[in-house]
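Structure tokens please, single chain.
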Amino acid sequence: MNCLNSKYRHTDRSQYTCFLYLNSHLFLKSCLCYTEPQNLTDVLEFFLLGFSEDPELQPVIFSLLLSMYLVTMLGNLLILLAVSSDSCLHTPMYFLLSILSLADIGFISTTVPKVILDIETHNRVISHVGCLIQLSFFNLFGCLDSVLLTVMAYDRFVAICYPLHYPVIMNPRLCSLLILISFLISLLDSQLHCLMMSQLTFCINVEIPHFFCDPPQLLKLSCNDTSTTKIFMCFLGAIFGGIPVSGILFSYTRIVSSILRVPSTGGKYKAFSTCGSHLSVVCLFYGTGLGVYLSSTISHSPRKDAVASIMYAVIVPMLNPFIYSLRNKDIKRALQRLLNRKAQS
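Here you go.
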């Protein structure tokens, strides 16, 4: 301040005041987080950059996402119609499959419609509240998919290892209880993630290099220290991701050991075929998720991460009904009877 006074002691007082104002204004502009975060988050808007900003690619991206979304909705709705309309499919296995189809519909609907609408309206803005709601539902249905796959693995374990006790063990009451527990676990996971993200403070004009509000991207863009949040997120991932994977591995370890004790080759093939569809979905779901995680740690390119995220956020929900319908004779028969009834009416 002494230097400033000595430098400007011969200048007009109003010019000196103006000089201080301009310099202080420039200093505040250089710091994006100069406003109190509490006031910022009330009016904060995020900009979802999506996959590409090239105008020529937007119609292609729009057509691909719309077609994949419609195929996903159609496939999962057909599974729901087949299971609900055919009394032969009113079993625990197909009841769990129908819940998985509902979870897949919710999972893809949290992200893809927003991207399609953004491309159509040329508006990539999402509010702070909307971002929290999106990531909350995304984690809810993603975790529900994971837990349901574990419950379905347990169902296959009981059916193969304890076939005579299967109707008693997997009764409707236990199935409903397992679905309720799965939903509550998923709800807890999503709300914990939402609570952590809501505590973050952000700067003005936050651009997310993704097609949805991805929590890792939000952590990178936050103004405050996120080391504790990252540790807590890793802890949540180990709990809500590690336990389902451990349950699936335990179930299939027991299943394989039980099948290997079957004397006939035909019996072994029949037992393995009942698990084929579920095992394919498990490998697809966790394989794509692990692949996206590994690619993000290697590439360090947010746009490549966004493209890779399509695998588990869009492709997996789209392929699940095809895997179950193409590999399952009961589903194909139920769909055929359903189509025949519609054609006759």
